[in-house]
Amino acid sequence: RPVWSPDGRNIAYASDPYGNFDIFVIAAEGGPSRRLTTHSASELPLSFTPDGKEVLFSAQRMDARANVMFPSRAVSELYKVSIEPGRRPTQILTTPAMAAQWNRAGTQMLYEDWKGYENLWRKHHVSPVAHDIWLYDVASGKHRRLTAFGGEDREPVWSPDERSVYYL
Fold it and tell me: What value does the mean pLDDT of the chain take?
């Protein structure tokens, strides 16, 4: 699950040398890796923040008790962690936000939801638990669903001018 920093200088990835997936970062030209997370839950990188100083990742660490999905060990939350050594992760959202991608200004985030159990690679999957694409606005704290197709909508990315969204 490698992800490139916006400037192309670093790569964040998940590895499990300590028994569960943790987030590591390495310079693109090589060298030693730095471990960024140490929690006993598996953590998977999604992207970098626009400035490249933090990595967004999903993990099942701490559900909010007000979350409609609480409690569930299967449902992840969204976090970020600095690429600088010794920093602690911060929770961004208490709900799943798969494939999260900030816009360049860091004011909006695209993501795909996760509503329930289903094989992610099932062909022609159409059901109420199929993934949809969402937009999160930081200033308002509101989430807006962008797709409502009965099948899978996944892996959203911004167009170069950030006026459009591409997805699978």
Answer: 89
